[in-house]
Amino acid sequence: MTTHDRVKSVEMKNKQLIVILKPEGFYEIDWQEIKGQINEEQIMIQEKLYKHFRKDRSEALFSLGLSEKITSISESLSYLRSIAVTFVKKLSKKQDIELSGQKIIVTIKEEEIKDLLNKSPYLIGDEYLNSEWIRKVWKDLNKVFSKMKQNYNGSVEEFLKTFNYDVHLHGRIFFHLVEKKGDDYPFAFMGTYLAEASKNGATKHLPLKNALIEYEKNEKKLVELLATVNKACEKSAFISKLVKSGQIFHQVGLNSKEAYTFLKEIPLYEESGISCRIPNWWKNKSNALKMAVTIGNEIPSRVTLDALVDFKVELSLGESKIDAAELKKLISEAEGLAFIKGKWVEVDRKKLEKTLKAYEQAQSLVSGNNMSMIEAMRFKLNAGKILKIPEEVCELEVSNGEWINSMITRLTNIDSIESIACGNDFHAKLRSYQERGLSWLYFMKNLGLGACLADDMGLGKTVQVIALLNYYKNIKKEKTLLIIPTSLIGNWMSEIEKFAPTLKYYILHPTENKNPYHDGSIYEQDYELFITTYGMLSKYEWIKNRTWDSVILDEAQAIKNPRTKQTRVVKQLKANYRIAMTGTPIENRLSDLWSLFDFLNKGLLGSSREFTDFTKKLKQNQDNYSKLKQVVSPFILRRLKTDKTIISDLPEKIEMKTYPTLTKKQIVLYTKLVEDLKLKIESTDNGIERKGIVLSSIMKFKQICNHPDQYLGQNNYAEKDSGKFERLREICENIYEKRERVIVFTQFKEITEQLSSFLETVFKHKGLVFHGSTAAKKRKDIVAKFQGEEYVPFMILSIKAGGVGLNLTSANHVIHFDRWWNPSVENQATDRAFRIGQMKNVIVHKFIVKGTIEEKIDLMIEDKTKLSKEIVSDKQENWITEMDNNQLMDLFKLEI
Q1: Is 738:808 a contact under the CB 8 Å cutoff?
Q2: Domain Helicase C-terminal, which positions (predicted)?
């Protein structure tokens, strides 16, 4: 192994292939970092898969469906494989497959599509997963199979064997079992075969005895036809007996014991390549014993997570309910098939005894009436464990009673929730989906249920929460604690002042208030909202000792790791109501989901160990994903920009101003530069010299706002030293979670490479850089690569080089890292993404550092009474040099 190979191997040990869903049956394959490590063999398997998918996606998926189960692949790739496996299984069961030539179409039923949808794990892009998406993938599998088979000279069975697939192609033989009435032999067995296609291509079933006549003079053909029966004889004494007696060629009456033997052996017959037609009650287990638990039928005396709820347990055989006495009677029957209440039922004593024990245990829980609402909602996840009944013993159905069902319906169908106003002095008109979000938050608060507001970036989570706080300000005195990343302090201040100027808030952070109030006396003052950061929270002991009316987390993925000190401190907070805000799809990593809900609604997903045990079962049985979604979905409100109910309510281009704050290092440099500038302009009378000093200072202030190292000419560019870099990471982490793309504009060529290096650490992928020095012959290749199918998450552009002429519509995010202060130039740059061919809403993020020249000039540009856009556009920054000294110092001085 070469040094390069060893380095690459180390890099790949903590990466896993994942699937990102796209519209209309499309998907992409990409790498994602994981917490653990995989071995060399698993690395090789994944790299081989990646190359195959890059070469031919449909062919790779078909091949994956023919492969043995690979334990090391991701849940998303495993799910995609399950679609292909379903296709291959149905393909192998087509009895006329060798008779059909190239005209082989494998169909999929609606119930099979529904089953695949129910088994889906949490996926990136799962908003696109629906029946049509499955059908499109299925159609591609049919096409690729037809194409690959056409290029192969041989039978379908031989073709499939080239993939080392353990082929069990179904032949033309069918075994039938039907019920008979009023007979000592209540069942009848019969063998049939599929006759060869006629000239018009039609096929038909004939009794097996007809084959003796049809192939009377062609023993070879008869032997080929009966090959699957001979295989079954090797595995089944029952079939061997029928063959030896010649009864295999005739209709045969069976008693219940013989019929039970036949039904139990069906997997053996199918492995041998025989198709079986059997009664639906056995196939669908519709007559099987089932235990049904119904939770929350009656309205509890008080609606909280601790409220006790009722539940009842019932046993049934098919549609008929039975009691414990009838179950005991059933246990006394002989093993096999028993005719009970007008239907045939399987009697397996061991299973029935375990079911009876579980039923009696469940009944004791009913009499104790000791299940809280949180336990009731969690019950679906671990009902089998609580009742000590394995899945294979008895079907266990857990359903919500009338009251819980009505409540969950309202939570998940927010249009049914009564709307509320935003309160007095609220200076914004909410979009209709934001109004529904506000009502949902209010409804959750009244129920005392923790709420996760997980709307897509750009849909206005902040304004919905501010509207809720403003509404409560008018009806009740409450104390709310808001915890945010440091980089969002400026944003929240600006949004509150803009939308709810009479909402009284206090920032518990040294960048805004020097008085730390460690004694907590500030709590008694007339503030409704206290804002602090995740980093500062542990420094205020009094915060943990209070019971807050509400605690709100912004960028709540900050507590995704339950082991960090930061997360532990947040979870010590006491509150009557909790909100978690996040634009990141929290379900992408199940451990993150548990940690978030441990804060929102403690106990809903059990303890960390219980949830870990549950997630291990997900890999064995994907049906459990639907149970998990049913449990958590009522507490998550996530609207996407692609939602049909949202998209008509949105502008095609969403502009967002984001307000990073200066770090300590930036404050020191900025303040010193202001002092130096004051001395220089006061000591010169030369107009040209003064103009040069002012213009060069503007550039220096911009550099400090970007990163201290840009101003100092150093190359470290530590994230902690720049508020913009911190905010850039937070925004781009959200973009990466959805595998979207972004273009970042800066006016400084010298910072493009540093931004690129930094974003590589965020996206775990290399990006592209485009500036004035980029060779002309490379420019087309760079654009083509960014627009291509392979995931290239970002491009850094200097605004002069990339501002015009480029088509970069694969990006739906634009970040203006520093401002050009010329709206027309910025708009031209934004239009690289927002132009013909763009299929998504474009979000434009404009970085404006709070309290600096960036914020002041932005306000001046907006205020047309002070300065028209045309003046700024025409003269760029020269107009600033025409200010007098006092005006200049007001513009440049730092206000924090």
Answers
A1: no
A2: 727-892
pLDDT above 90 (res 313)? no
pLDDT, the chain, mean? 86
Rounded to whole angstroms, the maximal C-alpha distance in the chain is 120
Q: Distances from the Cα of 133 to the Cαs of 22, 84, 140, in angstroms? A: 9, 14, 11
Q: What is the distance between the alpha carbons of residues 451 and 443, in angstroms, rounded to a whole number? A: 10
| Residue for token pair 């790299």 | 47
Count CA atoms within 13 Å of residue 175 on its CB side.
28
User: Is 770 or 39 the better-scoring residue by pLDDT?
Assistant: 770
CA dist list (Å): 737 to 77, 79, 306, 325, 828:
17, 19, 35, 55, 28
Looking at residue 876, its pLDDT comes to: 54
What CATH number was assigned to the domain covering residues 658-892?
3.40.50.300
Residue of 417 and 642 predicted with greater confidence: 417
* Residue corresponding to tokens 């020249």: 853
Give yes or no for a contact between 822 and 781, defined as CB atoms under 8 angstroms apart: no
How many whole angstroms separate alpha carbon 676 and alpha carbon 775? 39
Does 100 have pLDDT greater than 60? no
**pLDDT band at residue 871 under the 50/70/90 scheme:** very low
Q: What CATH superfamily is the domain 416-647?
A: Tandem AAA-ATPase domain (3.40.50.10810)
Q: What is the pLDDT of residues 876-892, one digit of tens each?
A: 566 788 788 888 898 99
* Alpha helices for 738-884 (secondary structure H): 752-763, 776-787, 799-802, 823-830, 853-862, 869-875, 878-881
Which residue, among 779, 736, 791, has the nearest Cα to 759 in the 3D structure?
736
Question: Which residue(s) pair with 742 in the sheet?
Answer: 794, 813
Does residue 630 contact residue 411 with C-beta atoms inside 8 Å? no
Q: What is the pLDDT of residue 497?
A: 94
CA–CA separation, 733 and 32 (whole Å): 13
Of 76-80, 147-151, 744-748, minimum mean pLDDT range: 147-151
Closest CA to 537 of 551, 521, 526: 551
Q: Which residue is it, tokens 């287990």?
A: 285
DSSP class per residue in 77-125? HHHHHHHHHHHHHHHHT-TTTTTSTT-------HHHHHHHHHT----BT
Retrieve residue 513's tokens. 């208030």
H helix intervals, 179-255: 209-214, 219-225, 227-235, 237-245
CA-wise closest residue to 384 among 352, 358, 356, 350: 358
How would residue 513 be classed by pLDDT, with cut points 50, 70 and 90?
confident
Residues 6+ positions from 229 with CB-CB distance below 8 Å = 173, 191, 239, 243, 248, 272, 274
Number of H helices, E strands in the chain: 39, 28
Which tokens is 619 given? 């890999």
Give how far the C-alpha of residue 469 lies from the chain's centroid of Cα atoms, to the nearest Å.
29
For residue 872, the model assigns a pLDDT of 44
- Specify the DSSP class assigned to residue 497: H
Q: Per-residue pLDDT for 167 more than 70?
A: no
Q: Evaluate the CA torsion angle 747, 749, 751, 755 in order and state its sign.
A: positive
Model confidence at 826, pLDDT cuts 50, 70, 90, reads confident
Instruction: For strands 529-533 and 505-507, give the pairing.
Output: parallel
Provide the H-helix boundaries in 299-372.
324-331, 349-368
In the predicted structure, residue 378 carries a pLDDT above the cut 90 = no
Q: Where are the domains of the chain?
A: 3-161, 173-278, 289-409, 416-647, 658-892
CA atoms within 13 A on the CB side of 172: 23
Q: What is residue 358's predicted lDDT score, i.e. its pLDDT?
A: 82
pLDDT tens for each residue of 64-97:
998 887 777 888 999 999 999 999 988 888 766 6
Q: Are 508 and 544 in contact (CB under 8 A)?
A: no
